[in-house]
């Protein structure tokens, strides 16, 4: 009876292959953050005001893009691939401070 039921099910089933039961991997969207350059005391004389940057993180693409608006129409950006990033350091004293160590 089981064989007969399976044969009936297979003949009535559409010709598309069955979908695996595993969960589909969700894609991770690119995240964008407004950040400020951390200024050390030695650099205070060189920089008049804090410099704002846009940090875009593409986890799936393995890229980190740092974008700085220089003027209304000009932009300057650096792209770092995941293999150039050596270490991420979360500050224990300042909650929203992150250090990034790059190769070289």
TrEMBL record:
Pfam families: C2_SHIP1-2_first (PF24150). Keywords: SH2 domain. It comes from Eolophus roseicapilla. Residues 1-25 are annotated as: Disordered. One of its GO terms (cellular component) is cytosol. This is SHIP2 phosphatase. The keyword Transport does not apply. One of its GO terms (molecular function) is inositol-polyphosphate 5-phosphatase activity. It comes from the Eukaryota. Residues 28-104 form the Phosphatidylinositol 3,4,5-trisphosphate 5-phosphatase 1/2-like first C2 domain. InterPro entries: C2_SHIP1-2_first. The gene is Inppl1. GO terms for biological process: negative regulation of insulin-like growth factor receptor signaling pathway; regulation of immune response.
């Amino acid at each position: 009876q089981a064989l007969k039921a399976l044969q009936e099910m297979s003949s009535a089933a559409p010709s598309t292959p069955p979908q695996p039961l595993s969960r589909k991997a969700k894609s991770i969207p690119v995240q964008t953050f407004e950040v400020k350059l951390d200024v050390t005391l030695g650099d205070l004389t060189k920089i008049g005001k804090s410099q704002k940057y846009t940090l875009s993180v593409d986890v799936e693409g393995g890229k980190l893009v740092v974008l700085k608006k220089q003027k209304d129409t000009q932009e300057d950006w650096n792209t770092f691939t995941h293999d150039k990033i050596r270490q991420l350091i979360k500050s224990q004293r300042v909650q929203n401070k992150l250090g990034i160590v790059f190769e070289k």
